[in-house]
Design a protein that fits this description.
Number of strands: 7
Distance between the termini: 36 Å
Strand content: 15-25%
CATH architecture of the largest domain: 3-Layer(aba) Sandwich
Shape: globular
Helix content: 40-55%
Largest sheet: 7 strands, parallel
Structural class: alpha/beta
Bound molecules: NADP nicotinamide-adenine-dinucleotide phosphate
């Protein structure tokens, strides 16, 4: 039977690539969630072209009522990918309290809201993947909120995994390194400003810092996520699949 897979942050970047990959790999039914309806509609078209079926809904992952209403209206839920996220610098000596709250609220509470809404609808054999980051494993100056949020997702993954494994639901995380999306473009812009170099030089330095010497494509991360969600994956419980070209070796 066709699996129904919910993806938050599916309007672009990694979330969209995950949705398209799952459509291609197994003809799944994808529920695409994000804030921008036009981008979600475009993503749904790509999912259909890749061999899946799709529906989408626009909203904010901080809105629990939206997510819970959606969850109630679905016939079945087999898997969830919580990819919605935002980044940005939060230097401790700058007035960035609102941004701090917004990053934690979107990245951590947003993922929690999605799990709260969709996990109760899953039967035995369900899968959940939370999208963390290598910055959940190590710190970067001025990225306090983002690093905290991504480390929090790893803690959330571990606890939820033990809570839900008794019901036959498998929860894991993926921690990408640099991935070529809008988020990386902004990250390089901020890095260039911090280093006092142009963006091309900032990108070169960021690439040089990765042992594999490159950024990754969203489709490469989608492969990893698809593996975590595969019905045969009933071994990984509360783990983090780090896809970063060697920056972290745990
Ligand atoms: N790119 C990287 O280098 C990298 C590395 C490690 C981890 N990650 C993580 O991977 C995930 C996806 O990032 P990306 O690189 O694909 O970034 P992206 O291209 O900026 O996409 C972010 C996605 O999250 C959605 N989103 C953001 N805030 C939301 C909210 N409040 N409610 C609902 N949806 C929201 C966006 O929806 P709208 O466009 O509709 O607003 C968009 O679909 C994030 O969790 C990010 O932290 C990225």
């Amino acid at each position: 039977m066709k699996r129904c897979i919910v993806v938050t942050g599916a309007s672009r970047g990694i979330g969209r690539a995950v949705a398209v990959h799952l459509a291609k790999a197994e003809g799944a039914h994808l529920v695409l969630l994000g804030r921008k309806a036009a981008d979600l509609e475009e993503g749904a078209g790509l999912v259909r072209a890749a061999g899946g079926t799709a529906e989408f809904s626009a909203g904010d992952v901080r809105d629990r009522t939206w997510l819970q209403t959606l969850a109630r209206d679905l016939d079945q839920v087999d898997a969830l990918v919580a990819a919605a996220g935002i980044s940005g610098i939060t230097p401790v000596d700058k007035d960035c309290d609102d941004r701090f709250e917004s990053i934690l609220g979107t990245n951590v509470t947003g993922a929690w809201n999605a799990v709260r809404a969709f996990a109760p609808r899953m039967k035995e054999g369900g899968h959940i993947a939370l999208v963390s980051s290598v910055l959940g494993h190590f710190g970067v100056p001025a990225y306090g909120a983002y690093c905290a949020s991504k480390a929090a997702l790893l803690g959330l993954t571990r606890a939820l995994a033990l809570e839900l494994v008794d019901r036959g639901i498998f929860v894991n995380a993926v921690a990408p390194g640099w991935v070529d999306t809008d988020m990386a473009v902004t990250g390089i812009r901020d890095l260039a400003r911090a280093l006092g170099v142009d963006e091309a030089e900032a990108r070169r330095r960021a690439e040089r810092a990765v042992p594999a010497k490159r950024f990754f494509r969203p489709e490469e991360i989608a492969h990893g996520v698809a593996w975590l969600l595969h019905p045969s994956n009933t071994m990984m419980v509360g783990k983090c699949l780090t896809l970063d070209g060697g920056s972290v070796q745990t």
